[in-house]
Amino acid sequence: MVGSASSDRGRDRVGKIFMAKDESTKGFLDSDKWRKRVPSIVKSLMDLILASVCLGLCLPLFVLIALAIKIDSPGPVFSSQKWIDEYGGVFILLGFRSMKANEGSHLSSVLIKNGSRLTRVGAIIVKLRIDEIPRLINIIRGEISLLHPTPIKPYLGQ
Predict the structure, then answer these.
(1) What is the dihedral of CA 60, 64, 70, 73, to 10 degrees?
(2) Three-class SS of residue 96?
(3) CA atoms within 13 A on the CB side of 131
(4) What pTM was computed for the model?
(5) Mean pLDDT along residues 40-59
(6) Could you tell me the residue ranges of all domains in the chain?
(7) For 73, what's the count of Cα atoms within 13 Å in the CB-facing half-sphere?
C-alpha cells in the first residue's frame, strides 16, 4: 500500500514517492572528494578563462614589446627562469627579457637597480611592470594561478 505507515519503515515520504534513507541516494557532489575538488576546478577554469581573455586583449602590446626587444638588443625575446611550485615541481616562468643577453637572469633585482644590465626597452617595460605579461602563458598552461602561492627560485628552496 502506497501511503501505509506500517510498510514505510526506514523511508521518508516525499509526496507519493518514497526515498530510501541509505547512502546510495546521496548526490554525487555530496562526497568529501568532490567538495574539496570543485573549488579547485572552478579556480582553474577561471584562471584559464581570465588569462586567455587578458592575453587576447594584450596581444597587440605583446607583439609590439617583442618587436621592440628584438630591435633594441640581440638575444631572445623571452627570459625563462626555473621556479619551484607549491608542490615542489620545477617549471619555467616566462617573462620579457629586460636585461642584456647572457647577463645572468638569476641575479637578484637588487643587483640591477642601477640599470647597467637593463636594455633601453627593458628599463621601460620593468618600470611599467609589463615585462610579466608572458606569465599569462604560464597561467594558461596551469603552472601558476592568478591567485597563487608565490613560487620560489630553486636555489632558495634548498
Answers:
(1) -150
(2) strand
(3) 23
(4) 0.67
(5) 93
(6) 27-141
(7) 21
Task: State the Cα–Cα distance between residues 129 and 123, nearest whole angstrom.
Answer: 10
CA dist list (Å): 38 to 29, 31, 51, 104, 148: 9, 11, 20, 41, 17
Confirm if 51 and 43 have CB atoms less than 8 A apart. no
pLDDT at 100: 87
Grid coordinates belonging to 91 = 617549471
Give the contacts of 147 (CB within 8 A, at least 6 positions apart): 43
Place of cell 627570459: 79
Q: What is the pLDDT of residues 88-137, one digit of tens each?
A: 888 999 999 999 887 554 444 444 455 578 999 999 999 999 999 999 99
Neighbours of 63 (CB within 10 A): 10
Please provide residue 135's backbone torsions phi and psi, each rounded to the nearest 5 degrees: -65, -20
**Amino acid, res. 107:** L
* pLDDT surpasses 60 at 6: no
The pairing of beta strand 90-96 with beta strand 78-84: antiparallel
For 141-156, the pLDDT digits (tens) are 988 888 876 777 776 5
State which H helix or E strand residue 39 sits in: helix 32-72
- Supply angle C-alpha 56, 128, 123, rounded to 5: 115
Sequence letter at residue 92? I
